[in-house]
Known about the structure:
- By secondary structure, this protein is of the alpha+beta class.
- The protein folds into six domains: 19-230, no CATH class; 244-437, no CATH class; 449-511, no CATH class; 523-607, no CATH class; 626-761, no CATH class; 768-877, no CATH class.
- The protein has a five-stranded antiparallel β-sheet with strand order 11-15-12-13-14. Strands 16, 17, 18, 19 and 20 form a five-stranded antiparallel β-sheet that branches.
- Strand 3 (114-119) and strand 4 (122-128) form a beta hairpin.
- The protein is elongated and about 120 Å long.
Amino acid sequence: xxxxxxxxxxxxxxxxxxxxxxxxxxxxxxxxxxxxxxxxxxxxxxxxxxxxxxxxxxxxxxxxxxxxxxxxxxxxxxxxxxxxxxxxxxxxxxxxxxxxxxxxxxxxxxxxxxxxxxxxxxxxxxxxxxxxxxxxxxxxxxxxxxxxxxxxxxxxxxxxxxxxxxxxxxxxxxxxxxxxxxxxxxxxxxxxxxxxxxxxxxxxxxxxxxxxxxxxxxxxxxxxxxxxxxxxxxxxxxxxxxxxxxxxxxxxxxxxxxxxxxxxxxxxxxxxxxxxxxxxxxxxxxxxxxxxxxxxxxxxxxxxxxxxxxxxxxxxxxxxxxxxxxxxxxxxxxxxxxxxxxxxxxxxxxxxxxxxxxxxxxxxxxxxxxxxxxxxxxxxxxxxxxxxxxxxxxxxxxxxxxxxxxxxxxxxxxxxxxxxxxxxxxxxxxxxxxxxxxxxxxxxxxxxxxxxxxxxxxxxxxxxxxxxxxxxxxxxxxxxxxxxxxxxxxxxxxxxxxxxxxxxxxxxxxxxxxxxxxxxxxxxxxxxxxxxxxxxxxxxxxxxxxxxxxxxxxxxxxxxxxxxxxxxxxxxxxxxxxxxxxxxxxxxxxxxxxxxxxxxxxxxxxxxxxxxxxxxxxxxxxxxxxxxxxxxxxxxxxxxxxxxxxxxxxxxxxxxxxxxxxxxxxxxxxxxxxxxxxxxxxxxxxxxxxxxxxxxxxxxxxxxxxxxxxxxxxxxxxxxxxxxxxxxxxxxxxxxxxxxxxxxxxxxxxxxxxxxxxxxxxxxxxxxxxxxxxxxxxxxxxxxxxxxxxxxxxxxxxxxxxxxxxxxxxxxxxxxxxxxxxxxxxxxxxxxxxxxxxxxxxxxxxxxxxxxxxxxxxxxxxxxxxxxxxxxxxxxxxxx
Length: 880
């Protein structure tokens, strides 16, 4: 309760008439008959703009008038019907009710004061009055009313402040206390938007309350500080220090002139109120007004700089670190995160490419996993998604599409999907069309380059193999090895933007490569002209699409084709000159095509020396086996393998599967891939096995069945589309091939897992899976072209390399090595020392198979084994 007592030692002076009461008082003194009177004798005139609220107040007062001889029963005044009617009034009516209370409060003394009274027939000089019985109940009603913000107009608020300042008894300060005043003014105005009339009134109010001892207590000093901030007399501490972005923001605020600082303080104060999952229309309206006061360009310039620094660790480090607790240097304070979310909301709907890019980058940072914590700051990341999904531009949609490919956190990924759907709805198109249309070109030319001038210097940005971005520098037309000092000193901002552009292009290329690979499962089709516009001739995607094979169909005629020498050709390099605008185009998947067709295209890829952005011609194909036809609704093809759980979880996230780590506690998770286009799920059953870490997480998993489920019921494998079955099985083969302990060359020293038998030895040198068989075929074609070809040969499961000291057998599945003559194991852990030298680099027919690269690196290393200097390898080679 902030109301205590309303009595004072002195009543109102006889000559004092409050402004709000004056009109009523004049009518009353003139003898004008009121339309009604309250139980306290207050005359209610029709001319009073608050007469309806006075009637409500009278009904409330009547409830609490003490009648002689009846006694008084205490109960909650806010639970009466009269109070409920008042509290249920519309917001504007509640504002008028407050004015009615302030008008009514001085009335009792003004109308009933006496200069003398008599006691036992003796006249006593001096003031005489009796405090009204209902004064104790009204404050309780007002306190309930003030819990919600009342939308006072500027004139109403000025009138209230004027009345409180002019009131000699100061009892109106209890009716409308200082905390309520500050909160209601701050809810509608900031120091930057405060009208001059209201600002003058508040300054008078501050002078009025400080005439007494107000401000002597800590709570009162805080109120004065808040009032000073509202008046622009002080700058509040709106951001917590210790974070790179907040430190910069605080520094820039301190360096601003008062007018600019006032605008920013108002905006940041508003951002501190960024609660909930999304902003209200009112919040956004206010933020737009505050940003307009700052100016869109200055706002954009500062917040983009601040957003870029969020990725950095704390500048003030927390040395206290507990086991199984997140690194505090990676986290944001709650208050700073709230302000960040507000700043992101301010960017909603901007339609600016640089802002969209900054929001996407910030989302990536905020969704990045922090050990023992989860996503770094999901509320800011979600705010970025909301801002992007509410922006109807292709740049914003492109950034959402990029996030869909690069962000792996399951909850975030689900939200990104919803944001893409929302953006598609906003622009009136399908999600697939939105993602394709919104791919940016970044201003690249047809030769995948972009030039930029920096005074006497220039730079050329070039996309290499649709994966990497290289920047070349020139000074006065001559190539230089690094960024010229003149550019660093005189073109700092332009340099940062250019370098960031290179990073953005590289990120977008990765995202688009992943998205296009997903088309292999979807079977999406385009008309020829639309496909050519969105893929073949698109400046950013041409480097990807022109290294792929496409399926063309016009009526009954169909063919496979690829881009070569400026035209679309078939496998015999004959031009496809019959293609028309209405031709249907889709990305080719090898499944269902004759082996001869697939083999011919693989040969074409090798002959043309093309490195595809992902496996397509050499893609593994999985068809139903007899054993799977017998089991009916599940496959045991990849059962009984032992995988490292953390590596498996990372692979699941990379390939879009949902999975949570399992441990020695009551937890269970089934890796699941959602297939909404076919209204089904794919499940890969696994369970924890062997040792459990200190954290309670199982280190390894054993694998079991693969199932397809619809509406909770398992499907017969014959009901699953062939392409879907093949792609799901390929994912699982990847999980096993990469995550199996058999692929770990250092595992032999750790021993086998209890109950797993001799799994490591069996897998490391066992039968080849589909990926390994493809790898063998590729190597059979590649090895004869290499300078070590004379030292290499093939056995069924091995690439055999004859060195100067020993002969080595590299397993084509695991990449592990045995040495002849006794099949002694050679442990080589892949790192920079085992990578092929630059002049030994080999053009592979596809990207993405790390094991293939490791096998080639080991082959080059072992073919020249006499020059190996790594002592751990040499000691193994020389021991027989």
